[in-house]
Amino acid sequence: MADLRQILSQGRKRIGLLVGAGAPLSIRLNAAGQLDDEGKPLIPGVEELTNTVLSELEGLEAQVATNIRAGLGEAANIETILSKVRLRETALGAETVDGLDGDGYKKLGQAICKRIGSKVGAELPPARNAYNDLVSWVSSTTRAHAVEIFTTNYDLLFEESFERARVPYFDGFSGGSAPFFDPVTVAGDDLPSRWSRLWKLHGSIGWALEGGAVVRGRGRSATHLIYPDHLKYDLTQKQPYAALFERLKQFLLTPDTLLLTVGFSFRDAHVSAVLDEALAMNANSAVFAFQYQSLEKEQPARKMAEGHPNLSVYASNGAVVSGVAGAWRPGDLPKNWQEIRASFWGSRKGDKGPVFLLGDFRSFTRFCALAQAVELTRQEAAANESEVANTALTRTGSGS
């Protein structure tokens, strides 16, 4: 962690982030819309999203979706259900299954996408949060290479956090009235390094297909370019997805790169396939996967790490480093290290003892934001909390 902190504080190494659905789960709000650890997630997890979307369908559409969910068994979630809907849309034509023909399943798919968009279209809270911390780190130093953020999420939280901080970024689109996707610029490195890169691997709300081209800025109601599960592979062969997945692969094949993953479960077969291939091809690249759950529950990540020494998995109770799994056993603290350790090791609600914290997106982004700290001074908690969020940061020349 000391080495990682030093790397993050400098601007010389090529660094990328892969952010999954666990990121917005770490931001919780109360009924008044204020940050609250006891509140509800800003964007629900997959299971809650599935229940909510299906509960909002009506009539025959609701019954068909319920039947599909029952037929899928334990693997059922909103993505697998939508995949089944679109398979039937493609295959049926005028034939009917459960009372719907191909056109009926097309409308059902649109209804599901519309409701997904309404749930993942939440706006970033005005109070400082994890996304603000991450942007603070991104913009904290002059960099030789732009920070590249790859995300599988459909939401606009990264865009809002960059724009609030007035930090420039490029997401593959160019233009003003109807920004269009430009794969040539995505493939190159012609933009200044101070422009961060934001790559939405699975599409985004706000994207739309107009005149045969993908455009951006069509509002949160534009949800037709949300594509889950089986269609992801087909669509990764088309623009803009082909260019975005190729960018991830090329990033990992570039010498001396570091990719940090957080909130990503490694259960997305198409993204994991790119990681698996690139790690095998380039032994000089490294991936650090920060996982929220225990090592026993992070089997997809653990399995890949045991086959690739250049992928390290850091779970709450243990890690896989250089292909070898083991439990955490913190040793004696070096001088002045107590506050540094507190930024990645401590108590967490629901755990019996102290755990590795960086699998939580909020702790991870705070660790990144504090990478520039010259001196860390931990304030005494006023209540029963001893969270990393209570850390005060003193920078050279200024304090906060």
Task: Please characterize this protein's 3D structure.
Helix 4 packs across helix 5. The chain has about 400 residues and is α/β, with parallel strands linked by helices. The protein contains 15 helices and 20 strands. The strands form six sheets. A nine-stranded mixed sheet has the order 5-8-4-1-11-12-13-14-15, sandwiched between helices. It has a three-stranded antiparallel sheet with strand order 18-19-20, with no helix packed on it. A two-stranded antiparallel sheet has the order 2-3.
How many helices? The count is 15
* Rg result: 22 Å
Q: What's the domain count?
A: 2
Outline, from the CA principal axes?
globular
The tally of beta strands, per DSSP, is 20
Strand content: 15-25%
Strand order of the largest sheet: 5-8-4-1-11-12-13-14-15
What tags apply to this protein structure?
single chain; 400 residues; alpha/beta; 2 domains; three-stranded antiparallel sheet; globular
Topology:
Layout: H1 2-9, E1 14-19, H2 22-25, E2 28-29, E3 40-41, H3 46-56, H4 59-72, H5 78-92, H6 102-120, H7 130-138, E4 148-151, H8 157-164, E5 169-170, E6 173-174, E7 180-181, H9 183-187, E8 196-200, E9 208-210, E10 213-215, H10 230-235, H11 241-253, E11 257-262, H12 269-281, E12 286-290, H13 299-307, E13 311-314, E14 318-321, E15 324-327, H14 338-342, E16 345-346, E17 355-356, H15 361-369, E18 375-378, E19 391-395, E20 398-399
Parallel strand pairs: 1-4, 1-11, 4-8, 5-8, 11-12, 12-13
Antiparallel strand pairs: 2-3, 6-7, 9-10, 13-14, 14-15, 16-17, 18-19, 19-20
Helix pairs in contact: 3-6, 4-5, 5-6, 7-15, 11-12
